[in-house]
Inverse folding.
């Protein structure tokens, strides 16, 4: 008797086929012929796939806006701290200048020659005159310092004002993109809910064997840790904007996988594209990030032409082949 081979993980094509079939037509007839998918299921699938592609593009925009917003908030906070520190320094300089000016006012209104002639102690007068010269010099230095500090303070205030305006714009864009994503996902959910329970089960079907699979491949070190983390997430649902631990979007999954390996990746797929060394498709190794659809989707390569990814709303983290999508390239973090 021959050795039993472990069944291959499901390809995206197989999953798509299961999606298109009704629950009652998942099995072939006795003669081996496959039933044709119903028009309703096929129509819903087409519409849902299109909505999810649009939502995924909007999700990546949303994540980028959110990432920009965090950077802007940090930068704005630093600028505001600089403005506050500069204002304190300005107040201290003004107090010093006022003290110098007051001393000059009290001692500097008499003509120096007359004051010297009237002085009963010329040596003491000369010492005071010298002190006045020092005070005048100090005043000039303080004025220059005060003017320089005021220019810096005005510049920091202007930068902070512009930055806060950009932050407001980002927050509005974030809210608008979130609304667009939610509308598309709500419509996709509504369409899925028009299917029967059996058809919905078919749409979400995955080969359960893939959930029991573990990684025993050639990768080592951080790459192996990232891949092992990805395997542990199989079956968890996709949710836009999610970074785990219970749900993920595409870049949330890859970011969490490499974070588990001790490597910090940017939040969005477009930024992750620039987070490592570009790898030729022929040189792919487990752990590499693989990118699709104009960098709007990313997965983690596991070898054998397959990847683990978080696909879209209504689906779970799954194993699929990298050739079922519009491949762009790969990066090794």
């Amino acid at each position: 008797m021959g050795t039993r081979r472990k069944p291959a993980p499901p390809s995206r094509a197989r999953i798509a086929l299961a999606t298109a079939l009704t629950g009652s037509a998942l099995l072939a007839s006795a003669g081996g012929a496959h039933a044709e998918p119903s028009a309703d299921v096929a129509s819903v699938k087409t519409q849902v796939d299109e909505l999810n592609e649009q939502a995924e593009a909007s999700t990546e925009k949303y994540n980028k806006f959110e990432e920009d917003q965090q950077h802007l908030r940090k930068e704005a906070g630093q600028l505001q701290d600089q403005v506050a520190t500069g204002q304190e320094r300005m107040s201290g300089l003004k107090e010093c200048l006022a003290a110098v000016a007051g001393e000059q006012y009290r001692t500097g209104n008499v003509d120096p020659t007359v004051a010297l002639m009237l002085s009963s102690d010329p040596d003491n007068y000369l010492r005071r005159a010298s002190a006045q010269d020092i005070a005048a010099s100090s005043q000039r230095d303080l004025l220059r310092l005060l003017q320089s500090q005021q220019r810096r303070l005005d510049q920091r205030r202007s930068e902070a004002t512009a930055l806060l305006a950009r932050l407001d714009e980002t927050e509005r864009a974030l809210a608008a993109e979130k609304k667009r994503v939610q509308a598309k996902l709500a419509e996709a959910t509504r369409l899925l809910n028009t299917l029967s329970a059996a058809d919905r089960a078919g749409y979400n079907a995955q080969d359960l064997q893939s959930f029991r699979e573990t990684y025993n491949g050639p990768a080592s070190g951080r790459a192996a840790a990232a891949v092992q983390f990805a395997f542990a997430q199989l079956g968890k649902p996709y949710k836009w904007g999610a970074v785990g631990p219970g749900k993920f979007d595409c870049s949330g999954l890859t970011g969490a996988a490499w974070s588990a390996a001790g490597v910090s990746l940017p939040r969005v797929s477009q930024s992750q594209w620039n987070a490592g060394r570009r790898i030729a498709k022929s040189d792919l190794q487990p752990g590499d990030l693989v990118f699709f659809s104009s960098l709007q989707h990313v997965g983690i390569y596991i070898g054998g032409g397959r990847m683990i990814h978080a696909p879209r709303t209504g689906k779970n983290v799954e194993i699929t082949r990298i050739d079922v999508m519009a491949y762009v390239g790969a990066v090794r973090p």
